[in-house]
């Protein structure tokens, strides 16, 4: 997510919701949704990096991060480097 968009979302969320116009609320929803997607990617990359250090199992990762290990695995799977050598 673009830093300017993140700052805009923070400004919108800092205001009382009943003071926001419909357009402001719609913009905040769109920005928050984009941030949710970006956050899932960030979490996936971070969990993959932890897993690839080969110090923690999936259950241990779940215990240490507070993310259920099945969820952690699902988020990390696209970012796990696989050895493609024969």
Summarize the structure.
By secondary structure, this protein is mainly α. It has helices at residues 3-14, 22-52, 58-65, 69-76. The radius of gyration is 18 Å and the shape is elongated.
Residue fraction in strands: under 5%
Which structural category do the helix and sheet elements fall into?
Answer: mainly alpha
Measured distance between first and last alpha carbons: 38 Å
Number of strands: 0
- Mean pLDDT score: 92
Please identify the oligomeric state. Answer: single chain
Number of DSSP helices?
A: 4
Radius of gyration, taken over Cα atoms and rounded to an integer in Å: 18 Å
Tell me the major beta sheet: none
Instruction: Please state the overall shape, judged from the principal axes of the Cα atoms.
Output: elongated
Helix content: 55-70%
Write the layout of secondary structure elements.
Layout: H1 3-14, H2 22-52, H3 58-65, H4 69-76
What does this structure look like?
The protein is built from four helices and no strands. Helix 1 (3-14) packs across helix 2. With 86 residues, it is an all-alpha fold. The longest helix is centred in the middle third of the chain and has 31 residues, at 22-52.
Keywords:
single chain, 69% helix, 4 helices, elongated, 0% strand, 86 residues, mainly alpha
